[in-house]
Write a structure and sequence with these properties.
homodimer, alpha/beta, seven-stranded mixed beta sheet, globular
Chain lengths: 271, 271
């Protein structure tokens, strides 16, 4: 599987799409069967007004998802990507899972960050899990992933791969520490014994910089690839492809040593 | 506040108590108002039989807690320590909070690890929060801390400091990574905006070695002291005192930037 960390540019959708396409092709060339792209890959992130977000939004049967489905059919891969979704009068911060030219599911971000409530209607549904050729996939988006319940619900539904398109704004943190977003991904992957694949973004956009912390974490909580932010060059790169060769079904095994079990050791009678 | 990482020895309770006492005095000498000691500090961890655990267990009004309360009165500090508790015919893996010669609360470990169910009756109660001179304290024990719900419940009850006596057995993990137990402490402290103080142990006991990962984490998820396992000497040390100078009330602030809030951003209607 691959996480493609790509520079998005809200003022250059055409160049953005070219970078996304190149990154997907590179990932597949290196063997990826499932490729995760960033949040709001169709539009960029830094909207100034709700009208701008609404104008950038596209229906599921619109151009961007059409391009993704075509790419998935051509390359024979599963793609998970964020996109700015139009539905009726609303815009949603959504993620789509496509495979072999078909849309498998669309997920709408539930936990909105920062100014997003000005631009987007929050999702109202719990995580969904879809079967793909690369494993059982639950898409969620950026800040969603910071709520352990969201990972747990997906894991309980049988998800093996939590796929997370993200746009992580750069916030202050100790320079000798990984960003807390990465630490949470490690902790929650380990707590619920799932793979978590996070495709963050890079590329300064309207003055905003980003963590660039894409990471693929195994069910033991340790990175299999990345975090990209551990490297020094990532801030300069326009795209970066992280790859990990995994057996998704390992995430079905919740056993912790001879006596313990990640699911059965919970005490839902007390929570 | 301080976390005292001390070598326990199930076959030398007298030497163990001397090391605990020295570590507490050293912590207080350096200014600690609250000191956390390891899990099962009264007995050591590696029981061979239930009978051995039962024989080592002491009531709350027994010698070990009596010694702790005396020490808290003499030194004018709050102490949180694990101990092997006898109650009726049962043994519990418990933690006591003492201040100024008084027992404030006893907590019984709910989430048992490894062979512990052979030796201990699991606790049945949710976390408790007690007011101390050093802040609002919720004690929990070792594996309890790996369940995010446990931290959340305590935080929702107003806990500022999650105090965690621990005995973390050494398990295989990548040598360039922090142990997952530490990563979870960071993630959960950051997710619920509380301080987490973990007093792990050191000292090989009946062939078992330990992580020695004591750590004091702030509400931003980053270590204020430790993890002790980041150092190379800890495996050899018989005791190590971690100190952090904090304002516990900062944990009451759940605000995340201008738009977000660690508690209000949750979606309990969906969990």
């Amino acid at each position: 599987m691959a996480a493609c960390q790509v520079a998005l540019d809200i003022d250059d959708p055409r160049g953005t799409q070219q970078r996304l396409g190149r990154a997907v092709r590179e990932a597949v060339r290196q063997g990826a069967e499932l490729v995760v792209l960033p949040e709001l890959a169709s539009s960029g992130y830094c909207f100034r007004t709700a009208a701008e977000a609404r104008a950038a939004a596209q229906p599921v049967d619109g151009r961007f998802v059409g391009w993704l489905t075509g790419l998935s059919a051509e390359l024979g891969c599963v793609l998970v990507s964020g996109f700015c979704e139009a539905s009726g009068d609303n815009a949603f911060n959504s993620a789509v899972v496509v495979q072999a030219g078909e849309v498998l599911t669309v997920y709408r971000k539930v936990h909105l960050w920062g100014s997003e409530p000005q631009f987007f209607t929050p999702g109202t549904k719990r995580p969904v899990v879809v079967d793909t050729v690369a494993g059982r996939v639950a898409p969620m988006i950026c800040y969603d992933q910071e709520f352990p319940e969201w990972i747990r619900i997906a894991a309980d539904l049988g998800a093996e791969l939590i796929t997370v398109p993200a746009n992580w704004p750069q916030l202050a943190h100790p320079s000798n520490e990984r960003p807390l977003e990465v630490i949470k991904a490690q902790a929650f992957a380990g707590a619920y014994r799932v793979f978590i694949v996070i495709a963050d973004r890079c590329g300064t956009e309207r003055g905003q910089s980003w963590i660039g912390g894409s990471v693929i974490v195994g069910p033991d909580g340790y990175p299999l690839a990345g975090p990209a932010s551990d490297g020094v060059e990532q801030a300069e790169a326009q795209a970066q492809v992280l790859l990990a060769d995994i057996d998704a079904h390992l995430a079905q095994d919740k056993v912790l040593g001879p006596h313990n079990h990640a699911r059965r050791d919970r005490r839902p009678d007390l929570y």
